[in-house]
Amino acid sequence: MKDMKKYIILLIFAGVFSMTQAQQALTLYNMDRVMQSQFVNPSIDVPYKLHIGGLLIPIVGQLPPPLYFNYANNSFYWNHIYHKKPNTVADTAYMLDIPLFMNRLHKNNHLRFDTQFELFNLGIKLENMFITVALTERFKYGVSLPYDIFEFALNGNMPYMLESKPHDFSGLGVNFTHFREFAVGGSMKANDDITVGARMKILFGLANVTTDFKDFSIYTDPEDYSLTAVTDMKIHASLPIYFDYLIHSTDGHLDSLDFNINELSVDAFMADGEFGAITKYMTNFKNIGLGFDFGATYKFNPEIEFFASVTDFGFISWNTNPQNFISKGEYDFRGIQVEVWQNEDDMNETMEKLVDTLFNTFKFELIETGYVTWLPSSIYVGGKYKFHELLHFTALYRGEFYRKTYMQSLTLGVNSNLTNFLSAHLTWSLANNYAGNVGFGLSARMGFMSWYVITDSFTNMIWPQKAKNVNIRMGCNMVFGYKKIKSNASLRS
Amino acid sequence: MKTKTMKTKLIYSVIIIMMMLTTNSCIKDNFDFNKWDREVQYDASFALPAAWGDLAFIDFIELYDSTGLLIENQDGYVSLQYKTYVNSDTVQSIIYLNDQETSGTVASPVFNFAGFDDFGDTISYVYTQNMVFTMFNPEAEIDSILLKTGILDVATNSTYGHSARLYITFPTVTKNGVPFSKTFTYVTGGGYANSLNNDFSGYKVDMTQTATGFNEIPVNIRLTLYYSGSSVPNTGNLTFDADMKGMRYSMMHGYFGLNTLFFESDTIDINLFRNDDWEIERYEFRDPKFNVYYWNSYGIPSQFYFTHLVANSALDDMDYNIIDYGVGLPVGESNPFDVSYATVAGQTKLDSLKLNKTNSNIVDVVNKRPKWIQFKAKATTNPAGNNHNNFVTEDSEIAVEVVMELPLWGYIYNFNMRDTMEIDVDDLFNEYNPITRALLRIDIKNGFPIEIFGQIYFVDQYYNVLDSIFYTYQERLLSAAEVDGNGRVLDFSRKVTKIEYDKERLEKLRGCKYMIYGGQANTTGANVNEVVKIYSDYRIIFDVGFEVDLEIGGNIDTITNEL
Predict the structure, then answer these.
(1) Which of A342, A372, B57, B553 is a good FRET partner for A37, with 20 to 30 A between their CA atoms?
(2) pTM > 0.90
(3) ipTM score here?
């Protein structure tokens, strides 16, 4: 009966969607002394009875402020573009290396940024369950650049033309999302071997600009060099202000196009002054979203554990000044059409006709209805081997769906709760198509203050010119009721 | 112990890692652009469409429609035509109204003064005299005139002692049915009485009411004397003088006699043969036509004939007469053409005379490569003699248009042209010219039965050939479409021409000062005199594109300055 109750509670948590950020947390995943590990590993066992933290908590929340920053690039780093010339010691010994840069590019290249400010977090251990509540301000932004854009600009269109291949720019994209999440989660022991966890989050969208390009390509015909352009593009925006987009045309002839910020919306937004505008922006509850994640840990034997989690399955519905700019069309450009012109006016009319045709084919239509954005989902699968009471080895596989790209990483880690007050974690990750990620995590507790600093690639901080991934997480929690988790390692003290 | 050792090792590892975090190894240099060697290398190749067209011959016909150079003829294919247009002299300069004058005297002997001896007595003398009009042509016999403008001045003088009154009436000069008349009054002792600038506009003058029946109008004169006293002698006379001047007609009827109208055209320039920029080795126009169109709004039978109808040959610069083979080309006074004429005022009759290969020597004339054609002509009225059905209006005219039509049915062999143009190629040799290769691709689907060859030579200041754009003597740029037995095109023919220049080939043009370009065209099968027809629905479809290889390498500051 007790088990049944547990399962029901578990299902409730699992059944209610919660949104978790698609954050990269390869080192954090196994840091059980840092409560924030529950963000990515809902079933992790945290050794405190109570923890509190967040920016809103005096002193604890400011020294240091609980923030997370992540930059990830799945294809190139700085030295692929600009690096020292081999065997050169001159003052001007650095070069631009476009061929190397091109060689490193993937079909779709994503430059992603993730910034989070934890406003508040609370965790309470109840018998067999651990309940968490958190309020976090999140910013996700980035740009995606398809390989073909660089190919077109740097090599021209002839190489693809000779292969009868189109230039595919559909991977081009921009994304900016600012939202606040309120999360409630919990984990519990289903039995001696299995621990499960789930989190439900309510999301409050504050600002969004996102692109959705299903098709954007240019094909050069090898027969006659004609260019066929195809678009199927959407640009969504939900902002405190909105844009005026007016097309003035007569019988298909473009007279003028107006695209400006609507001054009335700016005036309405700023009506109560700057502080009022900020308050209005930060307390916008019209864009609601939901999400969930869940995880489970299975003790195979006293030394070996397996764990898995799925995170970030969720969405936000944008309803504040929603504007959707949609373009869909196809045009075959064969050059300027030569006609029997009687005078210069006839020639100008031909040119105007071409402009009108291009405009009417590709013009953006504006639809002002709400829209939904989905956040990228992640899968974590891994295992832990407790070699020694103080030394655990972990392996973690992460897969993430991001804008038509499936990105994977593999992390091998060495984790040690050195003392009751200090734990250190070292990871090596093959992530973002780069094998030079050496991560480091440290948590230190003094009394009821527990500090943490974590990075998945500290080597990239030392050598930023070789960084495809830079991230850092830091903060401080107030923790109470520490109880050491017994380790059934192969080697004991 | 083991745990302690393990612990110690781990702690030291952490410390080392922390130290490494604070180590900065040459980070700054990697982001210092002052260390950049500023060398750039850019290699790209682009293929782009430049222009395309799908042109039908009908579009050119419509373009030249207003000039009449290209037309769709009655047989459904296209003709070149050259024309000139000439009007006759204005009708008012040939058939006009002179100023007219009539006068008279009424002397006292015509009166019977018996019983004229008391105050209140009046005696009158009435008579009619004819006013004879002198006409533009002594043979003219005018029945009526509708005056557009005219002025009548009447001057009189009485020497009668008695007071008098003179009535002058033109009974056949009427406006709205009312005859024109004037009254003059004289006091005792006589005197002058004038009436000047009387407006005759809109009056109809009927000249058929005298015994002659034409060219005259009756003038009724009535002089009344009023007894003015015994001391007044019964002698005297009265003279009058009536002048009609400034007369212009709206319409005139009658017989206008034999009048001659002269026509002299400008030359009809046949630019196809006249232009010095090209030559044609051999050609044939199967059915050239020479058409003469007349527009006649005179209501007068007329005859028309050419006094001079010649073509000047571009071959030998001699004049060749265009003659007919007995159909009746009106050349010379002995062989005039009866021109249709209007039968109702305001009507214009159109008539024409057409010469072709069956009834004239036009084919031979065209084969002489006529640079121009010119004609002089005359028209004479009333060749059949007296006919009182003639009429003219103020706008009457005879106009003539002469059209040389060359239906595009035949062949042209070796239409060739050549010209020279000065060019400056210095910019091509700029060290930082990024173009290393350029290729122009011209793809033509030709629906015309015409093939074109071309070549361009690049020469230096001494006209030494440095390079030619094609490696053959003349490159076929356009393949002629195939034709059926009737000369009509069966299908398009396609030709793709590529002109490529790379840096190595461009080097040959160093020192080039002039470009000599030339071309040659033939119709399909012209070498064996095969004939073709050009229809208005023939089309030509073309696509022009280019490939270009760009290469920019070197110091970016230098490149930027140079570009």
Answers:
(1) A372
(2) no
(3) 0.80
